[in-house]
Design goal:
The complex is a heterotetramer, with two copies of chain A (348 residues) and two copies of chain B (335 residues). Chain A folds into two domains: 180 residues, Thiamin diphosphate (ThDP)-binding fold, Pyr/PP domains (Rossmann fold, 3-Layer(aba) Sandwich), CATH 3.40.50; 143 residues, Rossmann fold. Chain A is 36% helix and 17% strand. The longest helix of chain A has 15 residues. The radius of gyration of chain A is 20 Å and the shape is globular. Chain B has 335 residues and is an alpha/beta fold. In chain B, helix 2 packs parallel to helix 8 and helix 5 runs parallel beside helix 6. The relative contact order of chain B is 0.16. Classes of the chains: A alpha/beta (348), B alpha/beta (335). Bound molecules: thiamine diphosphate (TPP) (2 copies) and magnesium ion (2 copies). The site of one magnesium ion (MG) has 6 residues of chain B, from strand 4.
Chain lengths: 348, 335, 335, 348
């Protein structure tokens, strides 16, 4: 069933939370500044008005205790959505996330469960710098007991949000700031996007590009550039990182024999390492490559920041080099810019 | 404490005394048994005994109802038992057996008893302060009228999360009773190396939280204060704080004594022994009552250890079980 | 404040007033210029302006010597400049240029000036409280006689690390002056949604730390208190705390005003404007002095922006530079 | 030059710290309980007596601020060694480690550096359970700007400690509790073990076993078992995880065509994933496999805990399956136990 209504990512998040809160009164939304007029870049807009200050409220700057509060509330009957405007700030809640949330169900032999969602946003550009730009999802992927999802589009933002709130486990919900204004077809009725099912967004026989979060878009744009060179790329969105749809990634990789994983994060011990390692263990014969943040801290100067991130041109170049090694290729900067007009709206 | 009023619920009746004694004695005897069995290597996780500190848990938990919550520490046997946690399930948990309260996956430091609202204990100091706060938030939101007793050691007051929790609890007037078990030690280190001052109650009061200090952790006094705090909290009165000065008779972890280790001598131990609350409350019972309680406790303990002995190990496939909770979801409205 | 003593170093001389004015005015004008230029998109990182709050940084930093340290916040232009950080290096940093004080890698939120002991500022609220503590520890250990001024916002007092730092500072009697810039806001949220009470000074005092509150952040008062605190600390007197109530004239981040945003009106702004410390101190100078200072500042600023404009971008290979410090190691003895 | 003096790992750590403190008075050692009579399982024994309470001191339970203290002291002229008796507790210092320590040098354009060592221990067995047993080094490997070392023996414990203290960057120093009593040849004079140089501990032509920390020993013991089956294993110790000696690992893998990486941690986004991913990118033709903690929380019951960790028998089985697929092999439990008598003392 295709829907014809388009929604932005930010509004899809908002609708997902709103519907989840309407559906179940145990759900509450809290975190620094969720109830101010900026409303976490609009994603929480109108929620305090609809659900009141008991269910939608800001907190003191106390990420550690507030994470514990979410866990304690979850194990005693509530369903919190804890919101952080930057993923970097989760480092203050790491003890509760790693030592409590992820372990609670297992460590007590299944005697309790922790249905909570932790929203956080990867920041990018405008010189946000080292501490406002990190994509740290790999840290959470490393810890058994957490789930990690990273919607790349408005449709999934809503569907994953509803699924995350309904899930009985701690779900790290990774958003990307640059995605907020992007649009996709989004059904109005509540729906779930299932965890653990990757999605092929574009099919092509030559190379498989796996993109995480916003990098799905960068991959799509790279695919456009590659098409001009006669190279057809499959673009795959893992949708959720834990659980990860290893089988589908393997299948799509085997089809082309060439894989590039492009992450919104560092590659060392990152999501891209995990994917390549799994394929290596399966004995794939494909050529494989990782791309992600440069292996440095993120600089603010635009002159350096531009080099820090993969972009359609560098992704296309990497694919070209994989398929036609030694042949020089650098996409015309004007065409590379045009690639930024490509967007995927569905159908899903 | 203020002078006793007629029918003052804070003054124990004979029934109350029997119940308090039973609870104190049960904890003492269970832990002594744990200590006795420990060297046989049947207990499969490090144990942090509360022997000597029972009065704090008992004084606080006695007036709690089942609907009320306790958020315990890794030194949590006392709170678990005082709140009504199952003895056999606890011993089986220490033995690493499938019938343990955490199915053998938690051990001594990770007791839990959802049936009586004992939340999961944690081996990372201070972590159960915010989780207890969360339970209090839930009680307020769900309008259960229940309160939460959060236990923490003197060491835990040094973790920043404690102050974050105090501030939030007071700001949102959550029904949470913070119970600080001040045994003056974090492992082997006294507060003089850890605290700039001991003005904790005063500090807590700056959050607008009433705070009381119990220099000898008299169980009747702690119980009386808890009764009053509970009443205030059920009325929407917001958090309370109790500093209970107490003494750890045994070593930090393990079954033994450690007065030969050079970091403390046994002079304070002797003082605390002289006012041992188990004996003091026991002394207020008739011999018949006391004997009957003692005998029942011995039977209960013997049965619990036998249960643990006889229980099976977890099956190998349980290694992979319970990593994630299932997918069941039924929306709830009207909370 | 106590009555002025003869030759009281806490009472400003005419020279002191000129220096204070210069500092206040420099900060005000640099930030106004930053705000003016911001819409041109030449500034390459988000800016958190201190306009209206200058008196706190100036009052504290004026009596500091170069050897003393400052640990600033992301709203740190004022502290950086008041401690003597280079104007051109700051503006170049905001422009993302190779000549910036952080070589273009830090931006507005990550100023640093090692040559005058301004430590690195951080965009994560509260993180520079413990790092400032560490600098104070080093000063004590290295017996430099230097002190450290740690700046923090009212929001930062909610982070647990603040209390951990107070405790350690008092316990080890470290020479650290905690300076809380209480502008009543964390982004758009007032303290009423974040603080259980406003009894911060009282709370800090429970650590044995002398605490003073400045309800209008009078620059002379803050300076006087700092002079006394520094003297005490150089004598081994341990930490001090100042709560400086102040007001952020502009929006949380960015160059504009935001009285139309619904979360505050401009009534308090008008009150604070009426006692603007830049004007008040300026008013105590002769016109000649003031004009000379103003003119020099305009030149300095114009030169700094020109320097930033003309400076080169970092070369692409700088992306990979400075991830790790080099391997040079020369042991030091006799510290 | 071979030394004939043997030392335990714990005493080697002690000697390394002692010599580093003698050499440079800026070095100080702090952390919970470093100065009590248990002395972090003996590793800090005698240091407060030699260097005094100003240079060797315990702290309040305040991991977050104490980590910040180390950073602040380091950038203003000191060289701290911050000690944690369990790696799990580092989660409380994550904000300072990830957002400050790792970034300080880069984020301020090289204007300051952070010479600090963060010691922590991986716990194992005795029912320590979920929160006292984690090997979380991969979380630190993921963050550029940190160095991560994991000595597997007494020689490296000392040499890496001295190198770490002399290094001008934050070094995460990963110890393993079970290694404390193990012995090796250790020179008495101060020496450094360089970062980024893997070491072959045993050579064999059939399979390459890479072990991290204590897993080096488990691999050596597996190699003994395999030898009885006529399979010769190379055992490789990466020594440091960041920097990682990718080239040497690749060379040793190419020699045998078979690689098993055995980590003291989880595999998902772990050190083992990183190694396999790098080899995959190089286009190795080798068979590759990861082993590590079971992908669960660590249980306390010995019945389950035994299954949680790789051991000589499971490692040997995995290697056997890789080399002789389909052939059943399960090492005689008695012989597997004997394997625990194998120990490597050097020469280095
Ligand atoms: C966050 C953290 N840091 C350090 C430890 C190691 N540790 C275990 S118990 C303990 C002392 C705790 O003291 P206190 O809170 O007073 O509790 P008590 O043992 O006296 O009951 C320490 C430091 C830990 N478990 N967690
Ligand atoms: C740990 C952390 N949590 C949240 C944020 C987002 N944030 C940025 S500034 C700010 C308010 C800080 O308020 P305060 O400390 O009073 O400083 P002010 O901006 O008023 O100077 C917040 C919440 C952050 N940067 N760091
Ligand atoms: Mg204690
Ligand atoms: Mg503020």
């Amino acid at each position: 069933m295709t829907d014809t209504r388009t929604l932005t990512y930010v509004n899809a998040l908002n609708e997902g939370m709103r519907q989840a809160m309407r559906e179940d009164e145990r759900v509450f939304l809290f975190g620094l500044d969720v109830d101010d007029h900026k409303a976490i870049q609009g994603s929480t807009k109108g929620l305090v008005e609809e659900f009141g200050a008991e269910r939608v409220f800001t907190t003191p700057l106390s990420e550690d205790a507030m994470t514990g509060l979410a866990i304690g509330a979850a194990v005693s009957g509530m369903r919190p959505i804890h919101t952080h405007i930057r993923m970097d700030f989760l480092m203050l809640g790491m003890n509760q996330l790693v030592n409590m949330a992820s372990k609670y169900h297992y460590m007590y032999g299944g005697a309790a469960s922790v249905p909570m969602v932790v929203r956080s946003m990867i920041g990018k550009s405008w010189g946000q710098g080292a501490q406002h730009s990190q994509g740290l999802h790999a840290l959470f992927m490393h810890i058994p007991g957490l789930k990690v999802v990273a919607p790349s589009n408005a449709h999934d933002a809503k569907g994953l949000m509803i699924a995350a709130v309904r899930d009985n486990n701690p779900v790290m919900f990774v958003e990307h700031r640059l995605l907020y204004p992007t649009e996709a077809f989004v059904e109005e009725a509540p729906f779930e996007v299932p965890f653990g099912k990757a999605r092929v967004i574009r099919e092509g026989g030559d190379v498989t590009l796996v993109g995480v979060s916003n990098m799905v878009n960068e991959c799509l744009r790279a695919a456009e550039l590659l098409q001009e060179e006669g190279i057809e790329a499959t673009v795959l969105d893992p949708v959720s990182l834990i659980p990860l749809d290893y089988d589908r990634i393997a299948r799509e990789t085997d089809k082309t024999g060439n894989l590039i994983v492009v992450d919104n994060g560092w590659t060392c011990c990152g999501a891209s390492a995990e994917i390549l390692a799994d394929l290596a263990e399966r004995g794939t014969r494909a050529k494989m490559k990782r791309m992600g943040f440069a292996p440095t801290t993120c600089p603010t100067s635009p002159a350096l920041e531009a080099l820090f991130y993969p972009n359609p041109a560098t992704i296309a170049q990497a694919a070209h080099e994989m398929l036609r090694p030694g042949k020089t290729y650098s996409p015309d900067p004007e065409r590379a810019k045009l690639a930024y007009q490509v967007a995927f709206k569905g159908p899903f | 404490m203020s002078a006793p009023r007629p029918n003052d619920p804070t003054q124990p009746t004979a029934d109350d005394l029997r119940r308090l004694y039973r609870s104190l004695r049960l904890i003492r005897r269970v832990e002594e048994e744990v200590a006795r069995v420990y060297p046989t290597d049947k207990i499969k996780s490090p144990v942090h005994l509360s022997i000597g500190q029972e009065a704090v848990a008992v004084g606080v938990c006695d007036p709690l109802e089942t609907r009320d919550y306790v958020s315990p520490t890794y030194r949590g046997h006392a709170a678990y038992l005082a709140k009504g946690g199952s003895v056999p399930a606890m011993i089986a948990e220490l033995y690493g057996k499938a019938t343990g309260c955490a199915a053998g996956k938690g051990g001594s430091m990770h007791l839990i008893a959802p049936e009586v609202n004992v939340m999961g204990a944690s081996a990372v100091v201070g972590t159960t302060v915010p989780t207890g706060l969360g339970a209090a938030f839930a009680q307020k939101r769900l309008r259960t009228g229940a309160v939460v007793a959060v236990f923490l050691g003197d060491g835990a007051t040094e973790e920043g999360a404690f102050y974050e929790s105090l501030n939030f609890a007071a700001l949102h007037r959550l029904p949470v009773l913070f119970v600080m078990e001040n045994n003056g030690l974090a492992i082997h280190t006294g507060t003089e190396k850890r605290w700039a001052t001991d003005r904790i109650c005063e500090r807590v009061e700056t959050y607008g939280i009433p705070a009381q200090r119990f220099p000898t952790s008299d169980v009747i006094d702690i119980r009386a204060a808890t009764i009053e705090a509970i009443a205030a909290m059920r009325d929407g009165g917001g958090p309370h704080f109790l500093e209970c000065v107490t003494y750890r008779w045994r070593e930090h972890v393990g079954p033994g004594y450690d007065y030969d280790q050079g970091y403390r001598d046994d002079s304070a131990y002797k003082e605390w022994q002289a006012r041992d609350q188990v004996e003091l409350i026991g002394g207020r019972l008739t011999d018949t009552d006391r004997d009957a309680i003692d005998a029942a406790i011995e039977t209960e303990i013997a049965e619990a250890f036998a249960f643990a002995e006889d229980s099976p190990w977890p099956e190998p496939d349980r290694l992979y079980a319970d990593l994630y909770a299932d997918r069941d979801f039924t929306p709830v409205r009207g909370v």
